[in-house]
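Example 9 (inverse folding). The structure is encoded as follows.
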């Protein structure tokens, strides 16, 4: 059997991925071939005449078959970069999105003047947000909670090297067990039932549904639960920062009036111009 060159292998894989509707076929093929050959992208592209070994060709074919089935590239590779650090991901773990870095930016601004800040992330998932915050503020204490034990397994992997992170299984719909917090941060489920069928197969068929999909009814339900925890646990002047989606952005007036104890600060837009992060400040009103 004639073995393909790097150029031939990339061209054929890209063609097949494009036919299947994969969004970035050449890029995905290139990254998977890097993993197989253990070579840098620049080296692969600079030596495209090199023939693949039999083992490399077989391994590459298996990875491309998984991608053709629309398994997320990040699950296949086992990682996704977020805030300049590799985050381990796999089945049961919500894949970090670049736009969620806006949530990290907002959170860091909220605690920039705080000494030894106490921060809680609700629905920590992969742990990408809490890992980013804890690495930027090693003087703080960072609590991460999730209702899903499988998600917390990924959080533990991604925060194991951070001594200022504490994790626990907890449901935001239960009474809040935390007190004296400077910040609550969250990326709750915000995809509506109407939006769900339009998602890419990689998201809809593989990523944890509970981390993405809202129950029927009020699109602001997760945010009202967060507001109740904020009322119970934030110090006066503390903040609640949450990522939002299209359905929530359309209800901006209701977001601003989420709770009498929370004063609306502002919304942050992502690079595409979509309202992405909502920010509130805890005031002294009770009730």
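The amino acid assigned to each position is listed next.
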């Amino acid at each position: 059997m004639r073995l393909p060159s790097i150029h031939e292998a990339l061209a054929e894989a890209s063609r097949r991925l494009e036919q299947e509707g994969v969004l970035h076929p050449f890029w995905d093929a290139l990254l998977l071939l890097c993993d197989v050959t253990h070579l840098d992208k620049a080296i692969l592209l600079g030596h495209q005449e090199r023939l693949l070994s039999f083992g490399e060709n077989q391994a590459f074919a298996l990875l491309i078959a998984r991608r053709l089935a629309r398994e997320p590239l990040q699950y296949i590779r086992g990682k996704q970069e977020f805030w300049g650090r590799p985050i381990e991901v796999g089945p049961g773990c919500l894949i970090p999105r670049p736009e969620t870095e806006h949530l990290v930016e907002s959170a860091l601004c909220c605690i920039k003047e705080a000494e030894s800040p106490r921060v809680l992330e609700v629905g920590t998932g992969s742990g990408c947000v809490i890992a980013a915050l804890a690495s930027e503020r090693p003087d703080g204490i960072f609590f991460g909670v999730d209702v899903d034990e499988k998600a917390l397994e990924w959080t533990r992997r991604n925060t194991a090297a951070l001594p200022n992170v504490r994790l626990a299984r907890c449901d935001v719909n239960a009474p809040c067990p935390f007190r004296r917090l400077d910040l609550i941060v969250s990326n709750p489920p915000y995809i509506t039932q109407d939006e769900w069928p339009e998602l890419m197969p990689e998201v809809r068929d593989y990523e944890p549904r509970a981390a993405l999909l809202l129950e029927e009814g009020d699109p602001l339900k997760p945010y009202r639960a967060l507001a109740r925890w904020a009322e119970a646990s934030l110090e006066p002047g503390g903040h609640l920062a949450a990522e939002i989606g299209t359905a929530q952005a359309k209800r901006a007036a209701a977001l601003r009036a989420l709770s009498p104890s929370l004063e609306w600060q502002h919304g942050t837009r992502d690079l595409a111009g979509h309202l992405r992060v909502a920010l509130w400040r805890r005031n002294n009103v009770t009730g």
